[in-house]
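sanity check this:
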Amino acid sequence: MSTQQQNISKLAVIPARGGSTRLKDKNIYPLAGKPLISYTIEALIDSGCFDKILVSTDSDKIAEVAGQYNEVEIYKRPDKYATTRMIVVEALLAMMEEIEPFDVFAYFLPTCPFRNADDIKGGVNLLTEDVDSVISVHEYSEPLQLAMIKNGDDVFPVFDNLRAGITNSKYFNQYFKPNGGYYIGWWNRILTNRNFFTGRIKGYEMPKSRSIDINDNIDMLFAETVLANS
């Protein structure tokens, strides 16, 4: 069964908490003159993949920006799910238990502004009945085999290849990580598993230029540079 079948209902959620410590009002911070969250909203609208787009927020300012789009509905996130210690997935799971169910649930971080409509379509197309979830990913820019743990001034290799002197890249495996672009899965399986990383997971690979995740001023400056040169 493909999610492209018309009888498969799909919900997209953009979790956008108001408080941000490293970059004030991060989710609506202007990137090239446009609120950051607008890039994600517009990509979702352009993709045409979802029956409903919700912005989950505790912030009136974020709700005001998102509310300018007719295709978007606002879910007022309870204060207890909007603290700095709250994990995004926990807040989303609580929301899922309150709202009407869909067949497919997906969430999109507003801090990943360059994921586009084609990336979203590609991820949705990967979700089939025998796949539990689809995650957007990109390759680690540095070889993970060179990783070390630091404790004070002491460092400890994570992998054995450093002790063996194997540092040539031809011996390294590729490693990937979630880039924040999206997490897509079957509604009932997410509620059962309480995460997107149980069962069979597909990874939709995105290039580094579209995998920028903005958390601070340096990330924002880098995003501005990428946008200006794209």
Observations:
- DSSP finds six helices and eleven strands in the chain.
- The chain has a mean pLDDT of 92.
- The chain has two domains: 10-138+176-222, 141-174.
- The two ends are 37 Å apart (CA to CA).
